Amino acid sequence: MNTPVQLDDFTRQTASQVVYQIFPERFAIGNGLSSADKLAQAAYDIPGAVKRGWDESTLNQPWGQQFYGGDLDGITDKLDYLADLGVTGVYLTPVFSAPSNHKYDATDFFSIDPMFGGESALQRLITALHQRGMKLTLDAVLNHVSDQHPWFLAAQAGDTEKRDWFTFRADGSYLCWQDYGLMPELNLANPAVRDVLYRQPRSLVQHWLGQGVDNWRFDVAQDVGIPVAKEMAACVAERYPQASLLGELNGYSASWFQAGGGFHGMMNYWYRTAILAWLAGEIDATQMNRAVADARDGYGLQGLLCSWNMLSSHDTPRLITTVGSIEKARVALLMQLTLPGVPLVYYGEEIGMEGGADPDCRRPMRWDEREWNLSQRAWVKQLISIRQANPALQYGDVTVLGDRLPGNALVFLRHTEVPGQAALVIVNLSDQPLKTRLLLPYSHWYDGVPLRDATGQTADTQVQAASVQLDIAPHGSAIYEAFEPYSNYTFFKPRNCA
């Protein structure tokens, strides 16, 4: 067992969220408009724009220049759908003014793109979210801007101050994101740049927090860097102590937490890589169980709990396309919703949407229920309900147990400091049943405590002297939770609390 960690309220509240990711251009169009009506607006009269009907393909079109008309009012219109699913927060990819559909190439960090309805639409969304007790996370790109941004145009025109906001070479070339010339990199070593991005009250980060945005996700954290993340966290904490700051890193993020004081969490691509590789047969259960333990060891409990567990996003193929079947997708979702961290559900995964690599993974959301996989949605809804009903699955610690068992199974225990508040999660990928006695190094599931699979797939079992007899079907799973079977006796007494 890990050494007990006392969690603060901020960590518990952050870890208790279920976040739904939306690519605003592709989720929904507000005010009852069709794509044709919406795309007729002046905001879309830009060079190179390709206007598409909602049901048309995203393939074989100029990258970043195809538009379907999704906007912020469309998201507001669908919040009851998200609340019914069990979602507690929404994460939007960038919404600031930009020439592309993805908006990672901002021309103005202080205006909401008119394609999305402008700032008034953002305020309507914030109000509607907060009325439902839901939070909003926006996406910030601190590393680069559009080559049409006024700052960069001024720099190219010879403005000596703005020229130092970027990094130019003697031949006129400049540093840009992954050599993509349309996205020149900002010079984050320049204090004036850091002032306008996050250090001052009227900066990008602080301004929008003041407008009601709850949290931030920061693009390409490796380019932003650990020192900037630490300075930014300190600045934000002074005025907005409840704001969560999360960084994007497609890899193992331990160094960001071990440095201390920067991002509260990271996008947990580490778990995604391990889960998908295990389901594909590219790694065995030894590596899968070790990956869970490595994240706990490297990120620390607080960092791990505040990180986002994701299986797909606007940058990756969709889950079912990747794993190849609904059955494997169900297993992946069970792991996503029970491993430590904040589940991040990419729009449409709950209804079984398919899609390959970008731009195919950014297909418009399907709103015709005849196109939904209803069993998939019911499964996601059930898993969210199970998670949100058990504090151990929200902010409990994790003890990995599968590395001590034969076969091909992931097994871990989630547990809080409250006696009995725990969940034993088992995923058996073997073609054979997992029939074995598992020793439980956990003091507060006492002898005789009955355990019930919250998913209803596997028969009840019982703790027997710090152990449990497992009988998990081939390719089966369980989320075992304790329950009180007696009318006049309780296993879990308050006096057993530390």
UniProtKB/TrEMBL annotation:
Signal peptide: none
Protein name stated in the entry: Glycoside hydrolase family 13 protein
CDD domains linked: AmyAc_CMD
GO molecular function: hydrolase activity
UniProt KW Zinc keyword: no
Entry keyword annotation includes Lyase: no
Domain Glycosyl hydrolase family 13 catalytic, residue spans: 21-387
Keywords: Glycosidase, Hydrolase
